[in-house]
Write a structure and sequence with these properties.
The protein has a domain of 67 residues. The mean pLDDT is 91. The longest helix has 57 residues. It contains three helices and no strands. With 136 residues, it is an all-alpha fold. It is elongated. Helix 2 runs antiparallel to helix 3.
């Protein structure tokens, strides 16, 4: 509910600023109300919006590239682990100890990942619960 109140407040502020601009416009000199001044203000506003869009686009692109790089690294590691597992399996009993260590390593990695995800979910749930209590 707090978000709706914030949006409503922002709407009221924007409407108030518009009303103030309408009230002050007749008091301005003709120089400030000329077509050139209006065009200049519109141009500056357009440039600022374009610059903000460019920065957000570059930021999004950078984050995606980083995410894709990490994803590719993880996929490469998974492929290498699968190839190692198959190679050790082909060696048979001679590589039994190494094969068992590889399986233990991957099982420990999966368990560690599950524990970290569980902790992160609990942390987010606790933060969400705390923010809901603070809003009330």
């Amino acid at each position: 509910m707090r978000e709706f109140a914030e949006v409503g407040l922002l709407l009221l502020l924007l409407l108030g600023a518009s009303a103030l601009g309408i009230a002050v416009r007749p008091l301005l000199s003709e120089h400030h109300r000329s077509r050139e001044t209006t065009d200049l203000v519109q141009l500056v506003g357009t440039m600022l919006v374009t610059f903000a869009a460019l920065v957000l686009g570059l930021l999004t692109s950078s984050v995606k590239a980083s995410f894709d790089g990490i994803d590719n690294d993880l996929r490469g590691l998974a492929v290498e682990l699968i190839q190692l597992d198959r190679s050790l399996h082909q060696y048979g009993g001679e590589a039994g100890a190494a094969h068992a260590l590889l399986r233990a390593y991957t099982a420990a990695g999966q368990k560690d990942k599950a524990n970290r995800e569980k902790q992160e979910i609990e942390k987010l749930a606790g933060a969400n619960s705390a923010s809901n209590h603070a809003r009330d």
